[in-house]
Amino acid sequence: MESDAFTLYKLIILFLLNKVDFPLTNSQISNFILEKGYTNYFNIQQSISELMEAEFINMESIGHNSYYKINDEGRETLSFFDNMISSAIREEIIDYLKENQYSLRNETSILAEYFDVKKGDFMARLRVLEKGEPIIDLSISVPTENEASKLCNNWKTESQKIYAFVLSTLLKEEDGNNE
Predict the structure, then answer these.
(1) Which residues of 48-75 are buried (b: 16+ CB within 10 A; e: fewer)?
(2) What is the pLDDT of residues 112-127, one digit of tens each?
(3) pTM of the predicted model, to two decimals?
(4) Based on the domain organization, do 98 and 154 belong to the same domain?
(5) CATH number at residue 115
(6) What's the DSSP call for residue 179?
(7) Distances from the Cα of 63 to the Cαs of 36, 77, 88, 118, 127, in angstroms?
(8) What is the rounded distance in angstroms from the CA atom of residue 129 to the CA atom of residue 116?
């Protein structure tokens, strides 16, 4: 019975990842499953680990977050066993994604991390991804870790304005007075 439960947890994770076209963080996956009361945090982490070992999902670490995406092997496995997920659970997943898709996508598409490049110099890497590809990718050097941290924190709320400013500034037409 225990292995059937873990099989279901893994299938739920695969189903969840298959229904989005962007990667999800460990906390996004965990929050959904915990919110629905399907299992506990430790079982979720074990299930994610086993899916990684079986090479059904891929993980990318950016900053302090791990991002998970289903791969072809995971999709194939899901297609064989997705009938083991009840229609009620399927509906809960689909409804959750409909209600939260914008916030989930924003959490995983606006990325900010910083690192120490040399003593007294930090680099902040700030990105916005669309369908997994960067639409803006900035690296800014600052002298303190505190400043690098502020850049990363503010990027989450200001990236759209900054992107729009950069685009409009760089795409503006010359005034035509240069004859």
Answers:
(1) bebbeeeebbbeeebeebbbbbbeeebe
(2) 888 888 887 999 999 8
(3) 0.69
(4) no
(5) 3.30.160
(6) -
(7) 28, 30, 35, 18, 12
(8) 23
